[in-house]
Amino acid sequence: MKLAILGAGESGVGAALLAKAKGLDVFVSDMGQIKEVYKAKLATAAIPYEEGTHTFERILESNEIIKSPGIPDKATIIQEAIKKEIPVISEIEFAGRYTDAKFICITGTNGKTTTTLLTYHLLKSAGINVGLAGNIGESLAEKVIDNKHEYYVVELSSFQLDNMYQFKAHIGVLLNITPDHLDRYGYDLNKYAASKLRIAQNMSGADYFIYNNDDDIIRNAFDSASFGGTTIPFSLQGAAGTKVLCEGTHVKVNVKFFEGDIDASRSALIGKHNQYNTMAAVAVAKLMGVEDSQIEKGLETFENAEHRLQVITVSKEVTYINDSKATNVEAVYYALEGIKQPIIWIAGGVDKGNDYSALQDLAKEKVKVLVCLGKDNDKLKEAFGRIVPVVVETTSMEYAVRMGRLLSTPGDVVLLSPACASFDLFNNYEHRGQRFREAVEKIVLKK
């Protein structure tokens, strides 16, 4: 069998290594430049590859093509494959063929990474033999080569779900659906929703679909009547039929054989959106047989991924929080809504057509200082200049943190939650978050 792999990033190289391990004739092609670390892996495994081009003749003589998630279906090489009726699948679909492990799959427009990491942490800390893979940045296919785990927690983007057909999750989680990546779906929200709902495909009676019962788009798009598995809706609002409910600091699970009442008060996760994320992860843990006390301990010891409402330090009763991943208004809303203390808010960067009106009431209630960190701050100043008592602007992260330290009083929070892309002053949101941490360590902790 001849297999062509398009894209030589984490997923593509992982798929290539698995294909080679299974004795398939594999060829890797990437229109861009391949990172040295991936070239080394391909060379060590004696896998032929090309970069900077696609050799159509060689690719289209394959029996099957594995497509990296970032390549759209409208790409010429994909259209040519479709004309020749060559199956085009995802790395996840391919990996699923070579393991008997069960998959716990998590998707949603927002919160995927936090929920995936939390779910993995709850299960692993309870002693379950579980691996972590998918959109989190680790290839499922490469992990399947050694096949050491009974379960895998897999974060899935809509792009990965689009090219999955026979793959089945034992537990599927859908956190939310809001308009995103619509250019890949003909600017049709219904098509995007259908992509997300592929998380529940092929399920049977022994499988579980955990979904947000407060999300109107999910409720309208999900055809529960024809669904083959068991539904586990979760809700903050007490929606009818809910089986997982958050009441104050307690998560209550009411599923036959899996009931629980979990105290989440010691969790470090902040905000309403993280209550949803926590409900989903707790529901998975209960379905996997984890005891309430083990879940509570796991919630207490969990540390979220960097740049997502990450507490850097508390100094002189002032908390410094890195939320650099918040590159849109909705993400900042979650941050401002979830923090109860007065806020010195560091925001700004490359505006993506933001409408800040949704943040104005929260800013008026909670923000005492706005530090505009960007080359063009006019839109931020216009939106909040009459609402926030103090507005300053800078192009220096160190100056922004210095202002936070100078203008804060005990009990305040200095919050980096930009609402904007980072490319005017930084390489990416990770770079921006790292610079924030470095500035806090230098100026506040004086390291």
UniProtKB/TrEMBL annotation:
GO CC entries: cytoplasm
Enzyme class: ligase
Pathway: Cell wall biogenesis; peptidoglycan biosynthesis
Record-listed ATP binding positions: G108, T109, N110, G111, K112, T113, T114
PROSITE patterns linked: FOLYLPOLYGLU_SYNT_1
Pfam families: Mur_ligase_C, Mur_ligase_M, MurD-like_N
Mur ligase central domain boundaries: 106-285
Compartments where found: Cytoplasm
Reaction catalysis annotation: UDP-N-acetyl-alpha-D-muramoyl-L-alanine + D-glutamate + ATP = UDP-N-acetyl-alpha-D-muramoyl-L-alanyl-D-glutamate + ADP + phosphate + H(+)
GO terms classed as biological process: cell division; cell wall organization; peptidoglycan biosynthetic process; regulation of cell shape
GO MF term set: ATP binding; tetrahydrofolylpolyglutamate synthase activity; UDP-N-acetylmuramoylalanine-D-glutamate ligase activity
InterPro entries: Folylpolyglutamate_synth_CS, Mur-like_cat_sf, Mur_ligase_C, Mur_ligase_C_dom_sf, Mur_ligase_cen, MurD
Family statement: Belongs to the MurCDEF family.
Function, in words: Cell wall formation. Catalyzes the addition of glutamate to the nucleotide precursor UDP-N-acetylmuramoyl-L-alanine (UMA).
Name of the protein this chain belongs to: UDP-N-acetylmuramoylalanine--D-glutamate ligase
